Amino acid sequence: MAKQRVTGKCKLCRRVKELCDSHYLPKSMYKSVQAKELKNSNPVMSVNGELKQVSDQYRGFVLCGDCENLFNKHGEKWVVANTPRTPTASFLLQDALRPLVPIRIEENLNVYGISNVDAFDVQKLIYFGLSIFWRGSVHEWRTSVTGQRAPVVDLGVYEEPIRKFLMGEGSFPHNVALKLDIWPFTEVLHALHPVVTERSPEGPRYWFYVPGLLFFLHVGAGIPEYARLLNLNNGVIALDTEVARSVRTHIINGVKSQHAGPKTEKMTQDIAKIRPTLKK
């Protein structure tokens, strides 16, 4: 079957070109949430309220080849290479933090300066994080097989400054704070979660999760002081156990709220036999 080709306006460079079959979350990261030991290694997704194992990803014709390469070169390739690909793989960024002395310690929170730490490429982390939030805002992402829709993301007036930053036409946007939490627990949560929007009197907060990395985005004049201080653009990252527990609970409760079909129940039992540490 010939590969489908679509011509349209690229959302990033805004030129009319042949568009790629773009992915919301990195295609290669879906492999890290597979159970390769099983006959059916596909990840679990919610399909019309029922959990099923299916090879399904959020995708669409959004970016041209040049802009896909831009995303890959300036962030995605490096991030994928430095996050754990399997539940038993070492987590390079987590390992790199162990010998460092925190610059700030609070209850459940350690903050580290990483500007001069070779293991961390701050600019690639910034680019990757902003690129995912921006992608969530500029397209209605659906899964290719089951048509599941990703949560709506609205960055408002901050969408355009972020686009210019990603194009290399502007500096890090004003009144934008990007926070990165490295997963604080030895057992990394192997899941992918698209951008979620949370509302508060201080303004919107957005977050998404890929294995080992939890990104938060605050926008607007009312960004809380803690978010400004923990801005990744300042060369700092955090280990935040309280937030990590909250996100893990959010994801697990989301799974529990779905009806597990018989095949998914059997898969869970098989995984428990293979990976006893995941039973808890």
Topology, please?
Layout: E1 6-9, E2 16-23, E3 44-47, E4 50-53, E5 58-64, H1 65-81, H2 92-97, E6 104-106, E7 109-113, H3 122-138, E8 142-143, H4 159-167, E9 176-182, E10 193-198, E11 205-210, E12 213-219, H5 225-229, E13 236-240, H6 241-256, E14 259-260, H7 262-274
Parallel strand pairs: 4-14
Antiparallel strand pairs: 1-2, 2-5, 3-4, 5-8, 6-7, 7-13, 9-12, 10-11, 11-12
Could you say which structural class the secondary elements and strand pairing correspond to? alpha+beta
Describe the sheet with the most strands.
4 strands, antiparallel
Radius of gyration from CA coordinates = 19 Å
Principal-axis shape equals: globular
User: Overall pLDDT, averaged?
Assistant: 82
Order of helices and strands: EEEEEHHEEHEHEEEEHEHEH
Strand fraction: 25-35%
Tell how many strands the DSSP assignment holds. Answer: 14
Distance from N terminus to C terminus (CA atoms, Å) equals 45 Å
Count of discrete domains: 1
- The helix content, as a percent range, equals 25-40%
Low-confidence parts lasting 5 or more residues at pLDDT below 50?
A: 37-42, 44-53, 258-280
* Largest sheet strand order: 1-2-5-8
How many helix segments?
Answer: 7
Explained architecture:
The chain is 30% helix and 25% strand. With 280 residues, it is of the alpha+beta class. The protein has one domain (28-59, 72-278). It has a 4-stranded antiparallel β-sheet with strand order 1-2-5-8. Helix 3 (122-138) packs across helix 4 (159-167). It starts with 5 loop residues before the first strand and ends in a 6-residue tail after the last helix.
